[in-house]
Amino acid sequence: MDRLTGARHRLAGTTDLPAVLDVAYDAFEDLLAVLRHHQEDDEVAFPAFVLAAAAAANGRDWIAGADGLPPAMPRERENAADPTVCVPVADVARIASALASDLATRLTAVAASAGGAGDQQCCQGAAAEARTMLALLSGASPP
User: Fold this and answer.
1) Would you say residue 143 has pLDDT above 50?
2) How far apart are CA 107 and CA 15, in angstroms?
């Protein structure tokens, strides 16, 4: 869960298009890894987690197609989650939903100021995937 919380903090500190795209790419990767890791923890949440993971992969792919995405920099990546730690599915859904919401908001904002139509389209597509994740995960998390 630290990966998702860390991604939220990194995203909050970004404003320019290349930085947002770079952080968003990593955030979608983190969401994909965490959701896949926890998708079988609860049979009721399983469909939402599988579909949300697919949306995370689609969001990542939208970002990968953006012209403004800076070249990949080698960096250390943490494991998706510690398999020895039990995290309630509701907590996973809540934390992932918060990151998806942040991604949708930030990508929509940066799309409006992106210079090229391709970057605008990529940001809007990724933001739509983040909103899909938010809708799916909100249903997976009990009120």
Assistant:
1) no
2) 10
Strand, coil or helix: what is 95?
helix
Q: Mean pLDDT across the chain, nearest whole number? A: 87
* CA angle, residues 122, 127, 129, in degrees to nearest 5: 100
DSSP string, 6-20: HHHHHHHT--SHHHH
Predicted TM-score (pTM) of this structure: 0.88
CA 111 vs. chain centroid, Å, equals 16
- Which tokens belong to 108? 């929509």
The per-residue pLDDT for 82 is: 47
What pLDDT does 84 receive?
Answer: 37
The residue type found at 132 is: T
Instruction: Report the candidate in 85, 128, 81 with the shortest Cα–Cα distance to residue 108.
Output: 128
Q: What is the dihedral of CA 63, 121, 11, 25, to 10 degrees?
A: 0
Strands, E, within the chain: which ranges?
A: none
